[in-house]
Amino acid sequence: MLIILAFIILFHVAATILLFVATINNAWWVVSQAGRDVIYTDLWYSCNTTCYPVENSHSADAAYLQAVQATMILATILCCVSFFVFILQLFRLQQGERFLFTAIIQLLSALCVMVAASIYTAQKKSFHVPSLQEGVYGSSYVLAWISFPMTLMSGLMYLVLRKRK
Questions:
Q1: CB–CB of 141/28 below 8 Å?
Q2: Residues 36-45: tens digit of each pLDDT
Q3: Phi, psi dihedral angles at 52 (to 5 degrees)
Q4: What is the pLDDT of residue 134?
Q5: What are the tens digits of pLDDT across the range 101-159?
Q6: Are 73 and 39 a contacting pair, CB within 8 Å?
Q7: What is the pLDDT of residue 151?
Q8: With the CA atoms of 127, 128, 133 and 137 taken in that order, what torsion angle do they form, in degrees rounded to the nearest 10?
């Protein structure tokens, strides 16, 4: 039982780290033009040697970007909250009960990641200036998609898991 518990905790911590890196790192979109510096764009800034805010990110035209920002932050917060709830439930639940509340919070986190990555995929051209539209998805985008199945599997593990002695 301790081995399974350690695996679940490590899996959850790994998913949380992926969410943090995907949300904070500046490589959702990478533009590499011949003879120019590589430009990394994240949910807030476009950076080469210096960083500039994403144009019109505060306007109604960038509502898609704001939705991605909000859902990624919410996913990260929910993932952290579900870990603390799991630790609390580990000591508070009666023997044989399921970690249902932890599972619900973790599944909501997975849903938020999926929504954020899906919106970014569908609307990537709408909130990039024309000079940045000829790029490719970066490592943070890939990490966001990798963290989706990890948080989903973690939530499903909590749904099935029962407290034992």
A1: yes
A2: 778 777 777 7
A3: -130, 145
A4: 79
A5: 899 999 999 999 999 999 988 887 776 666 677 778 888 899 999 999 999 999 999 88
A6: no
A7: 94
A8: -80
Tell me which residue of 72, 63, 157, 156 sits closest to 114, measured CA to CA: 72
CA-CA-CA-CA torsion sign (99, 101, 105, 108): positive
- SS3 (DSSP) at 128: coil
Structure letter (DSSP) for residue 28: S
Lowest-pLDDT range of 17-21, 37-41, 59-63, 82-86: 59-63
Residue 7 in 3-state DSSP?
Answer: helix
Determine the Cα–Cα distance for residues 46 and 113; give it in Å rounded to an integer: 22
- β-sheet with 45-47: strand ranges across: 51-53, 45-47, 39-41, 29-31, 136-137
In order of 14, 95, 162, the CA distances from 165 in angstroms are 25, 7, 10
Alpha helices by DSSP H, listed for the chain, are 2-24, 63-92, 100-123, 139-160
Task: Specify the residue for token string 């952290």.
Answer: 80
The two three-digit tokens of residue 86, written as one number: 């799991």
